[in-house]
Amino acid sequence: MKCALAAVAFAIALTPLVASAQSCPEPLASARRLVLVTANGMNTSLARMQRYEREASTHPWQAAGGPQSALIGRNGMAWAPAFRSLAHSGEGIKVEGDGRAPAGIFKIGRPFGFAPSERPAYLQIKDGTVCVNDLESAAYNTITTRDRIGAFVHGEDMARIPAYRHGLVVDYPTDRRHRAGSCIFIHVRLPSTTGTRGCVALPEPDVISLQDFAEAGAVLAILPESARSRLNGCLPN
Questions:
Q1: Which of 82, 106, 109, 207 has the fewest CB atoms within 10 Å around its CB?
Q2: What is the pLDDT of residue 237?
Q3: CATH of the domain at 18
């Protein structure tokens, strides 16, 4: 009888966690690893990064290591269109070229870098590797090669950007019709850098460690601290 009562008590205690997980937005709801990047407001480039993990979507988040400093967009952040429902009055929506990181929750994609690697799905950045930010191109917000898109399509020649010597692609969902920004990465923070074009920049050892952390799958949340309460029960305390 005691065992039965204990099982009932456990089920009751677990119910709020299950309900919370079900009401959280994807890809956060089903995630077991989280990279949380927060800033004190929407208009600052200074942020903090903390990694978390949990055994299942119904379990609480546990910190995986200590907090680290980070940089986001030189003009702060703006809400990704997919998360506009979380925006409060005066908080903008991201557009191409605004110098803001996209606020929201996104899957972390492929690791990349200049050197070869045996990491799964690793993308080696070579001469001619381009991330397209040209709103007139059907290849907008994709990584391709200069040979494929031609000389006149505008994009980042990634091999010429030192900050890309180690990084991770952020699976940021947008296209040229929505004009909501492109080429969002986690990459190396260079000396004297005070902000990015819209990416998350971390010290080089932290980027490499994050490649290890995300290898089994992880999501990135970029949020102002004030938005934590808008995702009640979804984020670590």
A1: 82
A2: 86
A3: 2.40.440.10
